[in-house]
Amino acid sequence: MPARETPREIAREVIRIEAEALGAMTAALSEDFDAVISRLLQVTGRVIVSGMGKSGHIAAKIAATMASTGTPAQYVHPGEASHGDLGMITKADAVILISNSGETRELADIIAHSRRFAIPLVAITKRASSTLGQQADFLLQLPDAPEACAIGMAPTTSTTCTLALGDALAVAMMRLRGFERENFLAFHPGGTLGAQLLRVSSVMHAGEALPIVTESTPMGETLLEMTAKGFGVAALVEGGRLIGVITDGDLRRNLADLMARTAGEVATRNPLSIAPEALLSEALGVMNAHKISALFAVDEGGMLRGLVHIHDALRAGVA
Fold first, then answer.
1. Averaged over 218-240, what is the pLDDT?
2. Backbone angles phi, psi at 101, to 5 degrees
3. Distance CA 158, CA 162 (A)
4. Would you list the domain boundaries of the chain?
5. What is the DSSP annotation of the chain?
6. pLDDT for 170-215, tens place per residue?
7. pLDDT tens-digit series, residues 233-257
8. How confident is the model at residue 1 (pLDDT cuts 50, 70, 90)?
9. Which CATH superfamily is domain 7-179 in?
C-alpha cells in the first residue's frame, strides 16, 4: 500500500500548482492589460467589480484594494444587482466582471446593463470564447491551468490568479497616479498601519505648549517653565533656533549650585532633534535608542517647531 502524503507534501503540491499557473499568466499576460489601465484611469466614477461565489469574494477584495490605493471602486453583488442594485452602476463607471468559465448566469444582467449604457466592461475569465469574453470590451484571460484541489473543481488556482491579476491592476494604477505614502495614510487613518505612517508634525506639541528658555533665564524660572509645561525638558532657544536642551539629567549634574546658574550654563548643547516631516515611528526609535522621553522637532534651518513625547507615540499606536 502506498504511503499517505503528509500535510506538508500536500501543501507544497498546492503551492507548486498555483505558482506554475501564476508563472504562466505572467508570461502570457494579455495585451489588453495596458488598454485596461488606460481606460480605468479615465473613469470619472468608480470601478465596479463583481463576481459570483468564490469569484465574488475575490472581486470584493480587488475593489477594496483599489479603493485604498487611490482608485474609487465598489463591489456589487450580481444577485443584488438583478434586484435593484444595477442603479449603482452608472455611465461614469467601468465594470470588471470575474467568471472562470465566462458563463456565470448571475452576471447576465450586469453584462446587459453595461452594453445598454455603453459602460466599459473588462472580463477576467479563462475562456475567451465564452459569453463574458465575447461581450467584454477588454479581456484579461486567466491561464488554462488545473485547480489545485484534490478533485480539480474547487476554485483554488483560478482564484489565486484572479487575485494576483487584481493586485496588478491596482498597483499599476497606483503607480501611474503617483499615489504616495501620504495618500495611503489618508485612506488608512486607523490601526497599526495608519500609526506607522503618521508624521511627527501630526502629534507634536507647538506654540505656547513648548517649554522654552534663553541663555540668561535663571534656573528658578527654568524649573517653573519645565514644571508648567509638564514634559520634563526645556528647549534652550536663540533667535528661534534650538541650541540646547535641559533635562532631568542636567539638573542632577548641576544640583550643588543649580539655583545660582542660568539655563545657558546648565543646558546640553547640540541636542538630538527630529524633523517635523519625519515618521513618528522614527522619532520613537531615536527616543528608545538614546533612552530619552522627549524629542524636539526642528526644521532644516534649525528653527524650533515642536516637541514630541514618547507618550504621544504610544497614544498614537506606534510601539
1. 96
2. -80, -25
3. 6
4. 7-179, 200-315
5. -PPPPPHHHHHHHHHHHHHHHHHHHHHT--THHHHHHHHHHT-SS-EEEEESTHHHHHHHHHHHHHHHTT--EEE--HHHHTTTGGGG--TT-EEEEE-SSS--GGGHHHHHHHHHTT--EEEEES-TTSHHHHH-SEEEEPP----SSTTS-SSSHHHHHHHHHHHHHHHHHHHHTT--HHHHHHH--SHHHHHHT-BGGGT-B-GGGS-EE-TT-BHHHHHHHHHHHTSS-EEEEETTEEEEEE-HHHHHHT-TTGGGSBHHHHSEES--EE-TTSBHHHHHHHHHHHT-SEEEEE-TT-BEEEEEEHHHHHHTT--
6. 999 999 988 776 666 656 555 555 666 788 998 999 999 999 999 9
7. 999 999 999 999 999 999 999 999 9
8. very low
9. Glucose-6-phosphate isomerase like protein; domain 1 (3.40.50.10490)
Q: Please give the torsion angle defined by the CA atoms of residues 104, 107, 111 and 116, in that order, rounded to the nearest 10 degrees.
A: 140
Residue with cell 516631516: 277
C-alpha cell at 89: 452602476
Domain 200-315 matching CATH 2.130.10.10: the answer reads no
Say how far apart CA 221 and CA 216 lie, in whole Å: 10
How do residues 67-88 score in pLDDT, each as one tens digit? 988 899 999 999 999 998 999 9
